[in-house]
Design brief:
By secondary structure, the protein is α+β, with helices and mostly antiparallel strands. The protein has four domains: 326 residues, TIM Barrel, CATH 3.20.20; 70 residues, no CATH class; 130 residues, Jelly Rolls (Sandwich); 85 residues, Immunoglobulin-like, CATH 2.60.40. 21% of the residues lie in helices and 36% in strands. It is built from 13 helices and 39 strands. Strand 7, helix 7 and strand 8 form a beta-alpha-beta unit. The longest helix has 23 residues. The radius of gyration is 30 Å and the shape is globular. It starts with a helix and ends with a strand.
């Protein structure tokens, strides 16, 4: 047995050596970083030993404000946590922000953590054309971690087959950056990487793979110092391109103790890259894993301060940023290169040809602006001006260009909630529970019934929500829904951001739900920046018995301006209000002279009455939209002049 193991070890080293020689001869074919032997090299040929941290960008810092703070440590890499439901533009922006701070972005998908069956779903996301486009844009300095800790108990054969397929699909899609493969068993299984790594490298058309072990190896799991020393030594002997992609001071739920100082030392001695978990905050299961309290360099604490700054083998004491990440050029070539950053403002998209974030001096690029439906491209801003489209530029400086589009959201009266009446069952809706609440949801007779079997401490311990609401900054919306409950219930709900920190755009709205079905409604103005994927959410965690919902609706009703917290309806330089007087008559009060056609609009955007164009002097006027009584519901009055439309606040009529 000893002889067989020695023969196999020599075979593995021989194969990896051959692949290293092969890779070194193909340097010109790599668009950015490349792996040769067990080391990573940048596009200029400089060896790179990764030193950095993990950051849960998609959940705790979507705008990337932590990158400058992480950069203060001297880190040369950040592993960026992402998910398949994340916004593509924000994904692009996170990579760019990391690069702006001279750190190597390693992007990973967290969806498959511990679940082998989800590997293919991660690959499905990576090979989407819009995702491939972002990767190719940044491919000179990007690393792609295919799936975080995919799988628990996975056989060597299944692991090799699954990742061979994954790598092949990604290469065929046009992704040629180094791909990072995590170990199974929640990332902890280094043996599976050692057993399958050589074959996976051989199967990769680019021979450009890194393998990542997550050293969640506390004493209570049976690991000890010798485990760290021996496994690193074996990987080095194999010439395996290994990094330590995650480690901390303790394991999940603060289980046991991890000798993180020994990990730092052994990795330094053997030139192995590492990324600590995690910059923080956000480790809800074990807050001591947070290296900082608020993502600021100044709040580094405990083990995080040691790993980042004070330890002999810390980031600050061992990290080296490649010259290419500092300057964007290879010194020996004498080339001059410039950055190209093009973003869209409003509702539209831009394409850049060639699709690169860095280009050579004198290279010609073409930028094309395409407006979304019901919108128009207006102009260029930043390093370019005018409205020529496409825009052709010979690059001789760093460029930051914004394509400015109109920001016209859905039409007035359009329904923003998909399956608002539950006619398609619970399609598009999610019932979630945590914090001790237990229950379920079912659609019966086009109503969704939520039954809480075990109440939570708070209403938000169980929620009904749907996302995908397209909200425009400055636009006002009417929200309505029908609800009843087995016993009286004080319901809290809101319209807001569909991710942490769960910002509420509408404010928390509270309603008294009784045993008979009743319609509830309110109006709010979107005071934040536009959000095309907002959610409407109902907190039901403390319901006793069941609660029922139907006809949940969000509709745009016009533009408003907010002053001192009071929503007012802007008409040129003046204001007007409308309120019902009965029998189809309304009072219109204005502070300035108004001229135009008046329309009475219901909640569905239907015009129920129209008054021909006329002039209204300052004061109060009676306007008649018809002799019939107006049904109960929500309405507003719209004034159409020759150029624009204005509207009143929403009126609720109850009969």
């Amino acid at each position: 047995m000893f002889l067989l193991n020695r023969i196999r070890s020599w075979y593995v080293v021989f194969i990896l050596a051959i692949l290293a020689i092969s890779a070194s001869g193909l340097g010109s074919q790599y668009p950015g970083f490349r792996v040769a032997g067990r080391f990573l090299y940048d596009r200029c040929g400089e060896k790179v030993i990764l030193r950095g941290v993990n950051k849960m960008i998609v959940w705790t810092d979507i705008n990337g404000t932590s990158f400058p703070e992480i950069a203060k440590t001297g880190a040369n890499c950040v592993r960026i946590v992402w998910v398949t439901t994340g916004d593509i533009d924000k994904f692009d922006a996170a990579i760019a922000r990391c690069r702006e701070n001279k750190m190597i972005p390693m992007v990973e998908l967290h969806d498959a953590t511990g679940e082998w069956s989800k590997l293919s779903a991660c690959v499905d996301w990576w090979v989407k054309p819009e995702v491939v486009s972002v990767i190719q844009k940044h491919e000179e300095y990007l690393l792609v971690n295919i799936a975080n800790e995919c799988g628990n108990q996975v056989s060597n054969d299944d692991f090799k087959e699954g990742y061979t397929t994954a790598v092949t699909r990604m290469r065929e899609a046009g992704i040629h950056v180094p791909l990072v493969i995590d170990g199974a068993k929640w990332g902890q299984d280094i043996n599976i990487l050692q057993a399958t790594g050589p074959d996976l490298i051989a199967a990769d058309p680019d021979h450009n793979l890194l393998f990542s072990v997550h050293m969640w190896w506390p004493d209570v799991y049976g690991y000890n110092d010798q485990s760290i020393i021996n496994e690193i030594a074996q990987s080095v002997q194999m010439n395996l391109p290994l990094i330590v992609g995650e480690f901390g001071n303790t394991a999940a739920n603060c289980s046991g103790v991890i000798n993180y100082k020994l990990i730092l030392e052994e990795c330094h001695k053997n030139e192995i890259g590492w990324l600590a978990w995690s910059w923080g905050p956000g480790n809800s299961d074990c807050a001591t894993m947070d290296m900082t309290t608020d993502s600021k360099f100044e709040t580094l604490q405990g083990w995080g301060l040691e790993v980042a700054v004070t330890d002999q083998y810390s980031i600050q004491n061992t990290s080296v940023r490649p010259q290419f990440m500092e300057s964007g050029i290879c010194e020996e070539t004498g080339e001059t290169r410039f950055s190209v950053s093009v973003i869209a403002s409003g509702r539209g998209s831009v394409t850049v040809t060639p699709n690169k974030a860095m280009v050579d001096s004198g290279e010609t690029i073409t930028i094309t602006a395409t407006a979304d439906e019901n919108n128009e491209f207006e102009r260029w801003a930043g390093s370019a001006d005018g409205s020529q489209n496409p825009l052709v530029i010979i690059v001789n400086e760093n460029l930051t260009i914004t394509a400015v589009f109109t920001d016209n959201g859905p039409a007035l009266g359009a329904e923003l909630v998909e399956n608002s009446d539950f006619s398609r069952g619970d399609s598009g809706w999610t019932f979630s529970k945590w914090g001790g609440a237990e229950g379920g949801a079912v659609v019966v007779n086009d109503e969704i019934a939520i039954t809480i079997e075990t109440v939570g401490e708070f209403g938000y311990n169980a929620q009904l929500f749907t996302k995908g609401l397209d909200l425009s900054s400055g636009m006002s919306y009417v929200v309505s829904f029908n609800a009843r409950a087995e016993s009286d219930y004080e319901l809290s709900m809101n319209v807001g951001l569909n991710q942490d920190p769960w910002t509420t755009y509408s404010g928390y709205q509270n309603f008294s739900v009784e045993t008979e079905m009743k319609t509830f409604s309110f109006e709010f103005t979107m005071g934040d920046t536009s959000d095309r994927d907002a959610r409407i959410v109902f907190d039901v965690g403390t319901v006793v018995g069941s609660i029922y919902f139907d006809d949940i609706s969000v509709k745009p009703v016009g533009s408003s301006s907010a002053k001192n917290g009071i929503i007012k309806n802007k008409i040129s330089r003046g204001l007007f209000t409308v309120y019902p007087r009965g029998n189809g008559a309304f009072a219109l009060a204005t502070t300035e002279k108004l001229t135009g056609e008046l329309e009475l609009i219901n909640f569905s955007g239907m015009c129920l009455g129209r008054i021909a164009r006329k002039t209204y002097t300052p004061g109060i006027h009676t306007v008649l939209f018809g002799s019939k009584n107006i049904p109960s519901g929500a309405y507003f009055v719209r004034l159409n002049d020759s150029k624009v439309q204005y509207r009143s606040r929403v009126m609720n009529i109850v009969r």
